[in-house]
Specification:
- The structure is a single chain.
- This protein has four helices and 17 strands.
- It has a 15-stranded antiparallel beta sheet that branches. The chain has a two-stranded antiparallel sheet with strand order 3-10.
Length: about 300
């Protein structure tokens, strides 16, 4: 029974659905996303702190989006997930990767997205994703570039499996995005972005960003991401018990290229991964988990 519970809950926890327990509560009473209704899922606030202001000349980094500005870009997410209980065989429960062509349009306080022909190397998921072509999504964004909400409005024929895969991909993209500091900075500037990743195991994510190059609106930013749990015990969903968190290491790096005049990153890749160990306090059963998530933007 424990293996079954972990195969579901640990897998969901690893691929970016840790927020779902919170956001489902937030939209309680709304009709299911699968019938085409838009569902808004709030994203925890961020705190930015400048570590180094960088070289002269300095100026504020701000999205300079004119309403109606459009962009074509592709989002690709991949997640590798393995788990082992005691000395049993290692189980690879990695979900399939997913590639989402996006048409983005800047609005007054966010970005509206139209999904193109979403694909996956897994034939079953690829077939399930076919009806999602033309689905809508969106981000609510602050003047500093922080995403405050994810909006999803799948086409009516989109299945639960396809909708879950899309949500996971967008959550991964949201938490590997970057917010700008509220101060003038120049090349070489370093700032941190602190954010809670909510869920059954609340995490604190600290992203250290370095502005390695800027030419007008074109910016290259290196990212270093660390996630640490804010609790020592994981309460399993559906009152299935609890697991002690023995150790938890998640670290990632990457580089993104942004155009301040466009709604989404132009290109770049961020990869985060690590190892976790959990223990059942009653049986001493030990669960080891290895995972890696990659978020890529490009043509």
């Amino acid at each position: 029974m424990l293996l079954l519970v972990l195969a579901v809950t640990l897998s969901a926890f690893g691929v970016g659905c840790s927020d779902r327990s919170e956001t489902t509560t937030e939209v309680d009473g709304a009709e299911p996303a699968g019938i085409g209704k838009e569902v808004t899922m709030p994203i925890p606030a961020v705190t930015t702190t400048v570590v180094e202001a960088g070289a002269e000349p300095k100026s504020a980094l701000r999205p300079a989006l004119e309403s109606g500005t459009t962009q074509q870009v592709t989002l690709r997410t991949e997640h590798h997930f393995e788990q082992q209980i005691d000395q049993q065989a290692v189980h690879d429960v990695s979900p399939p990767s997913i590639t989402i062509p996006l048409s983005a349009e800047a609005g007054t306080d966010g970005v509206e997205l139209t999904l193109g022909n979403v694909t996956s190397p897994d034939p079953n998921l690829a077939k399930a994703l076919l009806p999602a072509d033309g689905s809508r999504a969106g981000f609510d964004i602050t003047e500093l570039g922080a995403i405050t909400a994810l909006r999803m409005a799948p086409k009516p024929a989109t299945s639960d499996a396809a909708r879950a895969a899309l949500e996971q991909a967008f959550y991964q993209a949201v938490y590997q995005s970057i917010a700008f500091p509220d101060a003038a900075i120049g090349e070489g500037a370093v700032w941190t972005v602190r954010q809670q990743v909510s869920g059954t195991v609340p995490l604190e994510q600290v992203t250290t960003a370095t502005l390695t190059h800027r030419e007008g609106n074109q910016c290259t930013i290196q990212l270093d991401v660390v996630q640490t749990p804010k609790v020592n015990v994981w309460q399993l969903p559906n009152q299935a018990g609890q697991l002690e968190i023995v150790d938890y290491l998640m670290h990632g790096t990457g580089t993104i290229n942004v155009d301040l005049g466009l709604p989404l990153p132009v290109s770049g890749t961020v990869t985060i991964g690590g190892n976790q160990t959990y223990r059942d306090p009653h049986t001493a059963v030990t669960v080891r988990q290895t995972q890696r998530t990659e978020v890529a933007w490009g043509d």
